[in-house]
Protein: ABC transporter ATP-binding protein
Organism: Anaerofilum hominis
Amino acid sequence: MPETMIEIEDLCQSYGRKVAVDHLTLHIPRGMFGLLGPNGAGKTTLMRTIAALMRCQQGAVTVCGASVQKPAAVRPHIGYLPQDFALYPNMTAEGALQYLGLLSGLSAACRRARIPALLEQMNLAEQAHKRVRALSGGMLRRLGIAQALLHDPEVLILDEPTAGLDPEERVRLRALLGELAEQKTVLLSTHVVGDIEASCGEVAVMDGGRLVYCGAVEALRRRAQGKVYETELSHGSLAAFRAHHPVTAVSGTGKSCTVRFLAPEEDPCIGRPCEPSVEDAYLLCVHAAGGERQ
Ligand SMILES: Nc1ncnc2c1ncn2[C@@H]1O[C@H](COP(=O)(O)OP(=O)(O)O)[C@@H](O)[C@H]1O
Ligand SMILES: [Mg+2]
């Protein structure tokens, strides 16, 4: 059995009457673990609860054996990059880390040793003296990860770290996260399937506050076998087709187009079966969960 780093048991979290996390049980092992779900799925609420920033209302969450009910016991184990991470724009990259290190109680000696090493590790050594406002989106995200690593936690919680990055920065960040996960447990949330395919072997899919899948990414893909089809349609009939079939892709520019669609229930008489992608499988998962909720 792999060692469980984060243990979530029957967690329920609400904002007033709005249920954001709904009876969620999840055991996260060491290494890289993906949390995938559409906007509003409850990913940020779950991550804030794990990081002991939101009170656990019902159920139990432990990180490295420490309960989130005791934030002071959990925080040393956790580094957290919030979804809306921002810093004072006039500080330098290094100055910002000094400031955050000071706030989190790191000694001057520890800051002197760790900050240059972290800037190096995050490929930011050349930006150390640049102001935060002059950094690119990717650099800012890497600086955010550096601040999460300041106190050398075992677990990193990164809330949509690739959001808004251009493709090159996204690929670079994925590679960096892969390296980090050799030493740390990295819980990475995203709504982009490609992030999960590139970085994670294991994934939890959330939708509407619920866990709709947990396991290997490849096993998720295989679940869609026999449920993904392609067919040729005229552009004019596409809208009517969409009304009855979940379409995952449309290609072709001539009179007709090739439409890829999900058929969760039965073999459709139209179309030819095709090999599912992880994206097809994810959409199928979320589509099925949406259907159940209606
Ligand atoms: N502060 C809040 N007050 C009220 N509702 C909220 C608040 N934060 C999130 N929600 C709602 O809770 C649900 C889950 O949100 P969130 O955890 O941010 O999901 P995700 O990160 O997957 O997009 C959404 O329906 C969202 O609108
Ligand atoms: Mg979020």
Observations:
- Residues 16 and 57 are 12 Å apart (CA to CA).
- The chain has a mean pLDDT of 93.
- The pocket of magnesium ion (ligand 2) is lined by residues 43-44, 83, 159-160 (CB under 6 Å).
